[in-house]
Amino acid sequence: MDVRVVNAGIAGETADRTLARLDAELERTKPDLVLWQVGTNDALSSSVTEPAFEATVERGVTSIERHKSDVLLLDQQFTKKVNDPDRYERFVAVLDRVAQKEHVCLFPRYRLMKSMDQSGGEGIALMLAADGFHMNDVGYACVADLLALNIQELVAQPDQ
Fold first, then answer.
1. Domain with 33 in it: what CATH number?
2. d(Cα 113, Cα 136) in Å, to the nearest integer?
3. 23 occurs within a structural domain
4. Given the DSSP bridges, would you call strands 33-37 and 70-74 parallel, antiparallel or unpaired?
5. What are the phi and psi torsion angles at 46 (to 5°)?
6. Per-residue pLDDT tens over the stretch 16-35
């Protein structure tokens, strides 16, 4: 299969800023599938409220679908380097709610990484950069491999 990947993400961007440029990006690239990794910067920003974030992600999903693209949301990475873990987890839960409400797929990166951390060993440490927050090449490769498997499984399923 011929696959072209376009990385249109901007480091440090919040969902509302992505939304502001999303329509133009979708028109330009005309993707079959949009993987939207969203929420980390929103959860860390004290100026973003949960309801505002939820509404922004819902508008983004609607925009993606209006452009005839499929959407797969990726939730936040797990890290112990957040000042307010409860707030962070509430933003993770927002993506789960949006995915269920909008009937789109969600790749539960946060839950995957958190379970690796809780199982002991060095698994999570191997996935994070030295700052203990950002993912490193090993972490991204792991997520990419698991995402590819999930996408293959979804594509292989007959329409329901």
1. 3.40.50.1110
2. 13
3. yes
4. parallel
5. -70, -15
6. 999 999 999 999 999 999 99
DSSP 160: -
Q: Are 50 and 92 in contact (CB under 8 A)?
A: no
Structure tokens at 29: 């690239």
User: How many folded domains does the chain comprise?
Assistant: 1
Distances, alpha carbon 74 to alpha carbons 1, 59, 71, 99, 158, in Å:
23, 16, 10, 10, 23
DSSP classification of residue 135? B
Contacts of 9 (CB under 8 A, 6+ apart): 18, 37
- Give pTM, 2 decimals: 0.90
The first and second tokens of residue 130, run together, are: 């030295």
| Integer Cα distance of 11 and 29 in angstroms | 19
Residue 22 and residue 64 in contact, taking contact as beta carbons nearer than 8 Å: yes
Q: With bands split at pLDDT 50, 70 and 90, how would you rate the model's confidence at 137?
A: very high
- Other CB atoms within 10 A of residue 91 CB: 25
| Band of pLDDT at residue 45, cut at 50, 70 and 90 | very high
Residue 46 inside a domain? The answer is yes
Reference 107, options 117, 87, 90, 92; nearest CA is 92
Round to whole Å and give the CA distance between 79 and 61: 26
